[in-house]
Amino acid sequence: MTVLYQRSMGNQVWCAGTGDPNTVDTAPRGSFYLDSVNQHLWVNLDNATAWRLAGASVTTAVVDPAVTDDTPDFSIGDFWINTATDSIFQAVDVTTGAAIWVAVAGGSGLIASRRIAADSAFTGAGIGAATETAHTALTFTSANLNTARRTIRGFAFLRAPTANAADTWQIILRLGAAGVGGTLIVDSGAWDTVAGEVFRIEFEIQIRTVGAGGTFDATYTRWNETMGTWVPGKVTAGAIDTTVARDLTVTGTSSSANAAQAMTLTSFWAELYGA
User: Fold this and answer.
1) Mean pLDDT of the chain
2) What is the rounded average pLDDT of the residues 170-196?
3) Is the pTM value of this prediction over 0.85?
4) Cβ(249)–Cβ(155) below 8 Å
5) Which residue of 17, 46, 88, 144 lies most exposed, with the fewest beta carbons within 10 A?
6) 207 and 241 in contact (C-beta within 8 Å)?
């Protein structure tokens, strides 16, 4: 920090300057420092270099907080507002490199909402025969997921603009690592599509336990025109690491590498609820 003003009062030191204090700025326990640029008031806790913000601070950004948004820049109880998604987070652990920010729900319980901005399309020729390929993903942060009993609800809507006779599509919904690495939730099985056919998935996922070895339960229904009926299903104790960001991904597999074998994800939406 750059000190602009300093005054001693008994065993305390009052300072004002620019920039936050750091690990080389020593002062007696109980000393205060005012960062005149960011308007942060810091207090020293242990006769050495342990500076902490006095009172909760509020940070605004267009992204969610990360595990590196930690001490000494943040303290337990601080708030973070993602102005792009209107999400609010509060720090519950600021351990260096392992900070935990918990999303703060409003009265409705809605914590975060994700949806695709445009259609996602591919063809058998583009992905190759029998090759599971991700259409697109909705990403939830660790701050979103790292609380037990939170629930994700949503749907995916796909359409086959063209189809190659006798070839099939298989549509899958996964939760976890990016691409095709997540835990399987929904599997349509292979079906012979016709041009203009639609396929829809509705799902609900609940985080049961958290941590690197976290688990979730899920229920779903799926429907396509060829089958003509809703088919229910479930997943119990699916694996999920809630300490890092996780993707909810729709994937597709074509039985042939044919350009006429096409599939478009036209709508994909998910909302996270909880306390």
Assistant:
1) 82
2) 93
3) no
4) no
5) 46
6) no
**CA distances from residue 197 to 169, 227, 243, 263 in whole angstroms, order as listed:** 11, 11, 39, 9
Token pair of 230 as six digits: 């809703």
Model confidence band, residue 16 (pLDDT cutoffs 50, 70, 90) = low
- Write the class of the CATH domain 113-273: mainly beta
Looking at residue 86, its amino acid is: D
- For 232, the token pair is 């229910």
Q: What is the distance between the alpha carbons of residues 28 and 254, in angstroms, rounded to a whole number? A: 68
CB 246 within 8 A of CB 175: yes
Residue-wise pLDDT tens digits, 35-50: 666 666 667 766 555 6
Residue that is written with structure tokens 């006779």 in the block: 165
* DSSP label of 266: E
How high is the pLDDT of residue 221? 94
User: Position 4: which residue type?
Assistant: L
